[in-house]
Amino acid sequence: MFTGIVEELGELVRRDDTGGDSALVAIRGPVVTSDARHGDSISVNGVCLTVVEIDGDTFTADVMGETFRRTALGALRPGDPVNLERAATLGSRLGGHLVQGHVDGVAEIVGRQPAEQWETVTFGLPTELARYVVEKGSITVDGVSLTVAGLTAQTFSVGLIPTTLAATTLGRKGVGEPVNLEVDVLAKYVERLLTTGGRLPVDGLEAVA
To answer: Which regions are annotated as Lumazine-binding repeats (predicted)?
Structure first.
């Protein structure tokens, strides 16, 4: 579990294909590797990856073909910056919102509107995710916890402060570039409860929620 508060801007060092459509990726991040161990979870642009090996300030992780197909990680090239966050602990401050690191879809940046002290960035909104997005609600974009400032049937907008622009990939990406989206997991649980009439399947049976 993560909070969507990016700890550092890391860098993709290399991608080594391991057969089929999977790969081993190496990512440099001095902060997140400072206390990392084999098996730890690290969010990379909003994707929860498992640490396989640590070499100095660089960690490696296996990425399956399914992950490449469902996220924007496949578009990354060596040298590209990535948002990094270690898994939250029970004593962590929840500065953002509850983030699983399970990407729900990929969107594109469709507009950027600079202002004096911030910038409004607009993203395409996949049809299958639109019902989970509400104005003033939370959404994760490339691992960054953000508040929805504007919403239409096809797009949503967020306001980015200077710190977010400087400390995450969202300050560097241009119109047309892909980003990973994770909607608020609470919305999905509420939908499930409402559509099943409060009855959830348990091992092939049904249980009253």
So the answer is: 1-97, 98-194
Contacts of 96 (CB under 8 A, 6+ apart): 3, 4, 5, 138, 140, 145
Cβ-in-10-Å burial (0-12, 13-18, 19+) of 152 comes to: exposed
Task: Give the pLDDT confidence score for residue 22 in this predicted structure.
Answer: 93
What does the block give as tokens for 73?
């990680």
Tokens of 119: 């910038």
Distance from C-alpha of 158 to C-alpha of 152, rounded to nearest angstrom: 12
User: Around Cβ 70, how many Cβ atoms within 10 Å?
Assistant: 17
For 63, phi then psi, to 5°, come to -125, 120
Q: What is the pLDDT of residue 73?
A: 95
**Length of the chain (residues):** 209
Tokens of 50: 């498992």
- At 87 the pLDDT is 93
pLDDT at 124 (0 to 100)? 97
CA 125, 194, 2, 97 torsion: positive or negative? positive
| pLDDT of 203 | 58
From CA 147, how far away is CA 138, in angstroms rounded? 5
What gap in Å lies between CA 3 and CA 60, rounded to an integer?
22
Residues of the chain with pLDDT under 50: 207-209
CB-CB neighbours of 118 under 10 Å: 16
